[in-house]
């Protein structure tokens, strides 16, 4: 497969950095800043799939450029799946990852069931009514307190199954081999190879 350009329909530099670490060098990854796109992208839906598609549809309709986006989040079983699609803004607009983590840990309290999962859904849009979905999940548990400074978002409180360290502690290379985003991306790259 020859060199290829891919547009990530996101302003999130953490996601961009992770994707750049995971995507083969033959693929040149661009983000919305590279094409001077600055409109606010809506994420109004209740599922990761709908939000991922909303992002690519919005960007495609405004640019005509094939693009991909992901919607991802943390689902905590004892919290009935929260924060889910609200993961990025769980503690409210204008809050940060520390506030979101504090809210999850506060709501979970001393609950003994700490099972959770990270979910990522990638949407890839190539034409007005042509899009594809790829989903990845990683199971794990929520730690009692944040540990580690790596990653972003809820990484310091998520311990993936089979490990005794949080995503915030694991080396990024290892995290990027087992994460929800890497699993969705692997399916996406397989799809691209077949095109």
Can you put this structure into words, describing what you see?
By secondary structure, this protein is α+β, with helices and mostly antiparallel strands. It has one domain: Maf protein (Alpha-Beta Complex), CATH 3.90.950.10. It contains 5 helices and 6 strands, in the order E-H-E-H-E-H-E-E-E-H-H. It has helices at residues 13-22, 48-63, 97-108, 172-178, 180-194, and strands spanning 4-8, 27-31, 67-76, 115-127, 130-142, 158-160. The protein has a 4-stranded antiparallel beta sheet with strand order 3-4-5-6. A two-stranded parallel sheet has the order 1-2. The longest helix has 16 residues, at 48-63. It is globular and about 50 Å long. The chain starts with a strand and ends with a helix. The model has no long low-confidence stretch (mean pLDDT 94).
Q: How are helices and strands ordered from N to C?
A: EHEHEHEEEHH
The domain count comes to 1
Shape: globular
The rounded distance between the terminal residues' Cα atoms is 9 Å
Strand order of the largest sheet: 3-4-5-6
CATH architecture: Alpha-Beta Complex
CATH class: Alpha Beta
**Total helical segments:** 5
Low-confidence residue ranges = none
Mean of all residue-level pLDDT scores: 94
Tell me what portion of residues adopts beta-strand conformation.
Answer: 25-35%
Largest sheet: 4 strands, antiparallel
- The level of helicity is 25-40%
Structure classification:
alpha+beta
The whole-angstrom Rg is: 17 Å
Provide the CATH topology.
Maf protein
What is this structure's SSE topology?
Blueprint: E1 4-8, H1 13-22, E2 27-31, H2 48-63, E3 67-76, H3 97-108, E4 115-127, E5 130-142, E6 158-160, H4 172-178, H5 180-194
Parallel strand pairs: 1-2
Antiparallel strand pairs: 3-4, 4-5, 5-6
């Amino acid at each position: 497969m020859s060199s290829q350009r891919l547009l990530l329909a996101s302003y999130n530099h953490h996601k961009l950095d992770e994707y750049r670490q995971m995507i083969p060098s033959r693929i040149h990854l661009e983000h919305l800043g590279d094409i001077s796109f600055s409109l606010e992208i809506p994420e109004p839906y209740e599922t990761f799939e709908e939000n991922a598609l909303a992002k690519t549809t919005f960007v495609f309709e405004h640019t005509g450029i094939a693009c991909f986006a992901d919607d991802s989040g943390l689902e905590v079983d004892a919290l009935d799946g929260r924060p889910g699609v609200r993961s990025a803004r769980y503690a409210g607009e204008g809050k940060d990852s520390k506030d979101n983590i504090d809210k999850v840990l506060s709501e979970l309290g001393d609950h003994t069931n700490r099972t959770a999962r990270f979910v990522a859904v990638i949407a890839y849009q190539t034409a007005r009514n042509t899009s594809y979905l790829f989903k990845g999940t990683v199971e794990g548990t929520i730690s009692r307190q944040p540990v580690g400074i790596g990653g972003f978002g809820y990484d310091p409180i998520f311990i993936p199954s089979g490990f005794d360290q949080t995503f915030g502690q694991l080396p990024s290379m290892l995290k990027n081999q087992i994460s929800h985003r890497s699993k969705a991306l692997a399916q996406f790259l397989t799809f691209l190879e077949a095109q």
